[in-house]
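Thread: quick sanity check before group meeting

JM: Hey all, I'm pulling together slides for Thursday and realized we never actually wrote out the predicted structure for the chain we discussed last week. Dropping the sequence here so it's in one place. If anyone has concerns about the input, flag it before I start.
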Amino acid sequence: MHLAATLVAVLFFAVVLLGTVSAVLPAFGYLPVLGMTTLSFAPWLQLWETPGLAEMLWWSFFSGVGATLVSMLLALAFVSAAWGSRFWHQAERWLSPIMATPHLALSVGLIFMIMPSGILARGLSPFMDWQGPPDWHTVQDPWALSLTALLILKETPFLILMLMVSIRQLPVREILRTGLGLGYQSWTVWVKLIWPQLYSRTRLSMLTVLVFSLSVVDIAIVLGPATPPTFAVQVLNWFQNPDLEFQALASAGSVLLLLLVLAAIALIIVLEKLASSLLRGWLTSGYRGAGGCFWSALSIISWKTLLVVFTGSSIMLLIWSFVWRWRFPAFFPQSWSLKGWERAWPRLLEPLEMALLIGVVSAFLALIFSVLILEAGRKSQTESPFLRKMHRLIGRAMYLPLLLPQLTFLFGIQVWLIRSNAEGHWLSVALMHLLFVLPYCYLSLSGPWRHYDDRHTAQALMLSGSSVRAFFQVKCLILLKPLLASFALGFAVSIAQYLPTLFAGAGRITTVTTETVALASGGNRKIMAVYALVQMLLPMLMYGLMVLLSAWRIKSWRPIRRWV
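JM (edit): ok, ran it. Output follows.
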C-alpha cells in the first residue's frame, strides 16, 4: 500500500513539474516541435512591447490580492461574530450549496443582477425616473470591480469553511472565558488571541485563493475588463492564436504570470511581518476593546448580504431561462416561454453528457487515490520515521496544483499530450481534471480519516479475520458520509474546470462550462441563462444524491434508513 500511494503521489507531482518545465523552455524560444531549437530572449522582448501590459498586470494584481485580503478578513470576522450563535448553524447549511455552485454560473447570475438593464437598475428606475438602462459600467468595468466582487462572493464561503474546520482544534470556549474574566470584550479576545492561531492554520488555504484569483480565466472573460483584459485572459488569447509563432509569447506570458503570483505571495509575507511588528505593542498593551457590538453586527450584515446576492443570482438564472419578453424598466417579465430551453437543449445534450462522464470518472479516481494515500499515511504513523516524513511530504504536495497558475503548467502538459497523440479524448480531459479534483478530495477526507478510531477496525478484524472485510464493511461504512461528500466535492470541482478542458480537449471535447463561456460573449441572455443554470444544478443535484445515499440504502427493492 505504501508503494502504491507513493507511486500515485510521485506521478502526480511529476506531471505538474513536467508541465511547468515544458512551459518554461518555450518561453526562451526553445520549442523543437515548431522548429525553435535555440534559446533566446526574443519572446520576452516581444512580451515587454505588448500594448497595455502594465495595465493588465496591475488589474490582475489588484483584483486577485484585493479579493483575497477582503475575503480573509470577512471570513475571520464572520467566524468571530457567529461562533456559538444560530448564524453558525445557518452557515453550515448554506456553505454546501454555495461551495457547490461553480464560479462561472454565479458570475452569469451576478451579471443579470448588476448589468445596466439588470434587476438592480429595474428596482431603482421608479425612484431615478429611468426610462432606459442607465449608462453605468458594472459588467466588464475597466477597474475590475465586478470581477473582484465576484471573487469575494465565492471565496469568502470557502475560507469560512476552512476556518470552521480549523476552529475545532482550538479551545475557543476556554480562551473566551479567560479573556472575559480579565475584562476584555469578546471581540478583542478573538482578534488578539484567536485570529492569529486561526490564520496560521488556514494560511495555505488563503494562498490557494490568492493564486486562483490572480490566474482565473473563465470568470475574468465574463466579468473582467475587456480592453485590455486581465493578464491571464491575454495569455490564453495568445495560446489560442492560430499563428504558431505566438506560442513562445504565450509561454513567456505564462511564466510572467507565475512571477506575478510569486510577487503576490511575497507581498502577503511582507504584510504578515509588517503587521506582526506594528501590532505587537497593541496586542500586549492590555487594551480591553470597544465597539465589539458594531463589528459583530457588521460581520453578520456582510454574511446576510452574501446570501442575498447568492440567492438573487440563482433566481435570476432561473427567471432568464424562462423569459420571453422583459422590457426595461419593468420589474417583472411581460411574458414567459420554454423556447429558450427548446433551443438550447439539443445543443446542450452532448456537453451535458460529457460533463457528467468526466466529472464522475475524475471524482471517482480522486476518491480512490485519496483513500489509498490517507490509509498508507495512517499506517505509516506506527512504522519508521522515514515513512512518516514521506507521507507528510505527500500531503503537502497535494497543494502544488493549487499553488501554481493553471496556465503555467497546462500548456506544458498539452505539449506532451500532443506528442503522445492523446489530445482530444475524454479520458485525457478526465485525467487533467484529476490534477485539481484530487487535492480537494484529499483535503476534505484528511480530517475525518485522521479522527477515525482504529479500535473499530481492530474489533472487526478480530471478529472477521479479514482486513479487507474490516476495511470495507466497518471503516468505509463509518466514514461513508465523508466519502460521499468528498465525491460530491470532487464532482463539483470537475464541473467547474474550464482551462483543463480547453487544453486537453483540443476543441473536440466540450462541456457545459466551455459552452457557457463561449455563450457569455454573445448576446442571447436566455440561452446563456439555460447553460449557466444547468451548470449550477449539476453539482447541487450530485450533493443531494450523495446526501440520500448516506441516509438511505436499498434492500429488497425497498429504501431502508442507514444507522451507521
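AS: nice. The chain has two domains: 1-40+338-564, 56-335. The mean pLDDT is 85.
JM: adding both to the slides.
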